[in-house]
Design a protein that fits this description.
This protein has twelve helices and 17 strands. The chain has a seven-stranded mixed beta sheet, sandwiched between helices. Strands 8-9-10-17 form a four-stranded mixed beta sheet, with no helix packed on it. The longest helix has 15 residues. It starts with a strand and ends with a helix. The relative contact order is 0.14.
């Protein structure tokens, strides 16, 4: 079927639009709005006919020239309500962006062109934030605009092996409260009810960035942080990786050249590139700590700093090769300091056997500790610590975080949907995205019921 117009707010990398398309719904016009310039570039690349509308504060009935909108979607910013954030809700400027949705809906109603369907997404924490008052406010606002509201807490693990709970809110203008419902939705066929299984940690702290899981189900993909904060760390067996290698040497003259053309501060450059300042500063060093930018970052630097193409060939020409052990696959001892995580793979770490534990220590120089181990019979993993002699390495398992392509798959996007930019951006975009098959399920119910 076909609808006239789809307004995709807080559009990210197009999860709502892709889910709508996968549900078999065509649109005559799609307009999208997001504040992230990298996400906007990707959206336009994946949906070339879509119209970029600027930020949500720029969008109105007038700016859209009174265009007919049949569906409004939006994953309005969740940081203000997430348990991972400070949970300031409507006190946070990001939380107040919901009221721009209210403004836009009211604008269309005032012009006698109400938007018939809305579908919003947010984190689970929205439900109980501020003793349920935040969600009650959203419900009341939409109801006062004459929308019949339904909602459901949906978990990605129903369809894909990622534990990701999100609240979806559907509204039908002037809808019949006693009519057929869109929610609840259910996965077709056998649901993938996988359990997230933590098997230990790296080090003694049980922080989210250091937790290690088996591969039965992925932890919720997030948009930032080091070590395993973005994706979680997973125990894997032997892995062959396709590594991207440069065809040419990259001498330190390249770093000197960058330093010569540095016409602003590291902080300003890092902000423009949306990269950590500690990463960017290594591009301008000429000592052993220097680093060469990835091809996509090089091209961004070239545009930002205005230098010529004298070193383009050395930096940007790459080839792919399968490696059994490359720098991103070396196995490190978990004793001591971990390998610095770059924008590629995270490195692999030895972990202790889950079937063994030690007796308590008797002293600092106890050389016989490894002989006094008892086999666990409960099949429960010990906490993985940084003390190498605390258990025997019965088998060298390896730990790594998920790759960007794996994150795309866990969100239901095609492989390399986010390619052509830094891994930092790819992780961020996947972490902020909606899960495409979940959106597809809901869209099928919406248009099955109402059209």
């Amino acid at each position: 079927m076909k609808i006239k117009g789809h307004l995709d707010l807080f559009s990210g990398i197009g999860g709502f639009s892709l889910g709508l398309k996968n549900a078999g719904v065509e649109t005559e016009w799609t307009g999208f709005s997001d504040i992230d310039k990298y996400a906007n570039k990707l959206y336009k690349r994946r949906f070339p006919d879509a119209e970029q509308l600027g930020t949500i504060t720029d969008v109105s009935y007038k700016s859209l020239r009174g265009r007919q909108i049949d569906l409004l979607t939006g994953g309005f910013p969740c940081q203000a309500f997430s348990i991972a954030g400070k949970r300031q809700g409507f006190k946070d400027t990001r939380g107040t962006l919901f009221f721009d949705i209210q403004r836009l809906l009211q604008d269309y109603i005032n012009n006698k062109s109400p938007i018939p369907c809305i579908l919003l997404e947010n984190v689970k924490g929205l439900l109980n934030h501020d003793n349920n008052r935040t969600f009650a406010t959203i419900f009341r606002v939409l109801s006062n605009l004459n929308y019949t509201i339904e909602c459901q807490l949906v978990n990605t693990k129903w369809v894909l092996p990622q534990n990701r709970e999100r609240i979806y809110i559907f509204g039908r203008y002037n809808g019949n409260p006693s009519g057929r419902k869109v929610f609840p939705v259910r996965a077709n066929g056998k649901e993938m009810q996988k359990k997230l299984n933590q098997i230990g940690t790296i080090g003694n702290k049980n922080s989210e960035a250091l937790r290690v899981y088996d591969t039965s189900c992925a932890r919720t993909i997030k948009n930032g942080g080091g070590m395993g904060a973005k994706t979680g760390l997973y125990r894997v067996e032997d892995v062959n990786l396709i590594a991207k290698k440069r065809k040419h040497d990259t001498p330190k003259e390249i770093n000197a050249y960058l330093k010569k053309h540095k016409n602003r501060t590291i902080k300003e450059i890092a902000k423009e590139l949306e990269l950590p300042k500690t990463q960017v500063e290594h591009y301008f060093r000429e000592d052993v700590f220097r680093a060469i930018p990835s091809p996509d970052v090089w091209l961004q630097l070239k545009e930002l700093l205005g230098f010529d193409d004298i070193y383009d060939k050395q930096v940007t020409e790459i080839y792919e090769k399968e490696y059994e052990f490359e720098s991103s696959k070396r196995v490190y001892s978990d004793k001591g300091i971990a390998k610095t995580l770059d924008t590629g793979n995270a490195g692999l770490y030895k972990v202790k056997s889950a079937a063994l534990r030690t007796w308590p220590r008797t002293g600092k120089d106890d050389k016989n500790r490894s002989k006094r181990l008892e086999v666990r019979k409960d099949n429960v993993a010990n906490t993985i610590t940084s003390h190498q002699l605390d258990s025997i390495l019965k088998k060298e398992n390896r730990i790594r975080r998920l790759t960007p392509i794996e994150c795309e798959r866990l969100q239901g996007f095609p492989d390399n949907w986010t390619d052509g930019q830094s891994d930092t951006q790819r992780y961020k975009q996947c972490g902020n995205a909606v899960t495409v098959p979940i959106v597809e399920m809901i869209m099928r119910k919406i248009y099955e019921q109402w059209y």
